[in-house]
Amino acid sequence: FRVVDCVAGSDADLDFTSEIEITITADGVLRCLVVHFDAVFDLGPGGNKTSFTTSYAGPPTHWKQTVLYLNATRAVAPGDV
Q1: Is the pTM of this model over 0.85?
Q2: Looking at residues 20-44, what average pLDDT do you find?
């Protein structure tokens, strides 16, 4: 997960890469990844704290999930990583 300090952060903090590992649980063809994010705004001790999620399981907001299409499809089977 990535934490970005919205008060003290800079543009450079938003330019990053991360490695992920996903274990396949069903046979099929992998065409894309659907991602969502959670945002927590915490002003520290004594401050307000609020959050929201763009997950399909969360309350609807104007923010949405994002689809990352792969350059090529890939046949997958349970246990593939």
Answers
A1: no
A2: 90
